[in-house]
Amino acid sequence: MTKKWPYGSRSLAFSAGVWWTWRHRNLTCLKNEVWSLKHLAFNIQMVINRTSLHHISIADGVDKVVKWNCLNHSCYILNVDGSCHDNPLRSGFGGLIRNSDGFFVSGFSEFIVNSFDNLFAELFVLFNRLCMVRTLGIIGFVCYSDSLHFVSLINEPLMKFHVYATLIQDIKDLIIHSNTSILHTLREGNNCADFLVKMEVASDYVMTNHASPPKGLLPLIRDDVRRTYFSRG
To answer: Is residue 65 pLDDT above 50, yes or no?
Structure first.
């Protein structure tokens, strides 16, 4: 008798609730970050929705797979990512803008010395790029990040006492005027941004703008253009 994972069931809701409650407890103890019940419930629901959207039944004998831009938006696509290395202590961010066919428009990467906060890196890069696309006159694009926490902070009501409340509000204001959607993707759907941020964190350049794909990135872009599927874990 085959056994299917109970996607969308009470079991999934319970598991997501336990995981996010445990994470909230850690953030409260380690970073003094307190969430409202509405914030906690939003994150739990995001996990349920994401799992329901991407799952493939275990009984089918097929692994869950992910591809870039799986929703096929007909606009510009921005992928962003942040990373942190603790030896030596430094964090950074990276990302790239493409059209819906995967054509490379521009890329960017930067490391932040003496910082260990991935969340700040991702918030900062989004604010920076929103300002840039507004200057270029680009109206209407979708931003993907593989950080569910980052996406929920932008999409849900502002937490006034959050350490980055001012930066988050500035991003929300820019989003309103640029017709931007902030969506979550799994890490396998964010390979190009992940490549750029890791490349920059390992370098000594504070800020790099890429008019063309750097060495090593082109094969990843080709995979995305071909809508190559990657196995999830």
So the answer is: yes
Strand partners, 207: 110
Phi, psi of 82 (to 5 degrees): -125, 155
Confirm whether 67 is domain-assigned: no
- Residue 2 belongs to some domain of the structure: no
Exposure string (b/e) for 14-42, b if CB count within 10 Å is 16 or more? ebbbeebeeebeeeeeeeeeebeeebeeb
CA-closest candidate to residue 75, choices 107, 101, 106: 101
Range of the domain at 51: 10-62
In terms of Cα–Cα distance, which of 200, 195, 183 is closest to 222?
195
Structure tokens of 50? Answer: 């994401």
Q: What is the mean pLDDT of residues 149-169?
A: 88
Residue 183 and residue 215 share a domain: yes
Q: Has this prediction a pTM greater than 0.85?
A: no
Is residue 131 located within the same domain as residue 225?
A: yes
Q: Say how many domains are in the chain.
A: 2
113 by DSSP, 3-state: which? strand
Q: Report the pLDDT value the prediction gives residue 55, as an integer from 0 to 100.
A: 45
pLDDT in tens, 183-220: 888 888 899 998 988 876 556 666 788 889 988 899 99
